[in-house]
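Side project, low priority. Logging it here so it doesn't get lost.
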Amino acid sequence: MKKTALVALATAQFVMVLDQSVMNVSISQLVDDFDTTVPTIQAVITLYCLVMAMLMLTGGKIGDIIGRRKAFVIGLVIYAVGSTTTALAPTVGILALGWSVLEGIGAALVLPAMAALIAGNFEGAQRKAAYAVIGGVAGAGIAIGPILGGWATTELTWRVVFIGEVVLVAVILALTPKVADARRDGPAPKLDVVGAVLSAAGIGAMVLGILQSSTWGFLTPKDSPVEPFGFSLAVFVVIGGAVLLWAFAAWSHRREDRGEDPLVHLRLFSVLPLRAGLVGLFTQNLVLMGVFFVVPLYLQLVIGLDALETGLRMLPISITMFAFSALGSRLSSRVPVRTIVRTGLLTATVAIAILLATIDPELRDLGFGVSMAVLGIGMGLIVSQLGNVVQSSVDASGRGEAGGLQYTGQQLGSSVGVALIGALVLAGLTNVFIDRIAEDERIAPEVAQQVSVAAGDGVDFVASDQLAAAAEEAGIDEGSADAIVDDYEQAQLRALKTGLLATGVLALLSLMSTRHLPDTVPRDDDERAPAAAAAG
């Protein structure tokens, strides 16, 4: 295997996924450093996701036009400029420019090009192994991010993470000459500017609506800036995005009918293995990010761990995900892709069931560690297959577009996972808390009514001592306050379990999407193995 090329590409993947998980555990420090608010920093994080999701398809097409390695290098340079700007940012506006905009643009160029470069540099069993390594590194980056971010924020400053990214990018650029450019069939296509605008606006609107649904509410308004017809703005933003994507599809069909290059050839969706791979990547990220939404809430706000301790408790998923992504690539020479992915989904479901059993007021270290390790096994088996399925389902000319679709699907899956599970957890918290307050004989009826009215618009997930302080400030007697806190803690556990249960159900339901994955063992020298296996 071309080890140097793989090191360069895997390091790029690690850098691309590190930021968000680092920033999520550094929010409070960012608020203090920039003298701003939590919603402002969350908006910066949301903007990063938006920029990547909006530009991923365009980034993939640019790689087709100028060459995948050139797009990879340009994206890395833009990313490094963004990281430098972020590390030196004096204001939250400069932070948003560097991290959300420049790094988002860089990632949108790097990731689709990286997917095509793997397919261009490796063949057969080596290609499977390379995609497995990339998938494992992505999972490791997500899991290591909280540890690194927690340590840096606690011991030094969050800025050192971005300085470290600049160093890593310099290393990648030094190794890039060892990465051969991906072959392209036929002449270079032209950029469909109208299609790029429509797709960016449509995907951006949908992702924005989904991400903001936890803040604005999805149907019933909570903190919605406006309330059209009495509903949350989020649902209208999602619908608007869907309409724009419909217009994008119509425009793309029109360009194809006229013999012009569309941003994405929609006929790719008729390739069943590719479509199954994209759906698999979407659901895998949905499940993973759903669990990653619930677990930090439990560890930090229920158990009371800090960011570094939280990251260490989640470390087993990083280790087993990396190990079993490598094992999965070896298994695919003897076991069909469909079987491996289904095994991974079932294993992830078992892990979620174990995790459900460990959600208690006191952390069960052994059970929790086992659940994280088993979840990593399931996720590792899944990611070891799907990247290769997507890229091997198309010819060389379609790999940039396929890479754009691949990472767009992952971004959508992550966004939906956080928004959907987050909405379920918060809705469950509110409903259970209000029910328990109403039924608790320790609480005077007038106090119960007061609390129920206050909680009617939604309850935030906070540490129980914050609720106790709020009850004291409201003049609630000590006995009632203790009962309220007890009811809230019980509601927290029930809400978290509801979110995990929903995640497990989604993992099981996603088994239906595996129908068109390859069900035979391909030859290692077959570049289009998954497509051939499925067709055969």
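Brief comment: The radius of gyration is 23 Å.
Revisit when time allows.
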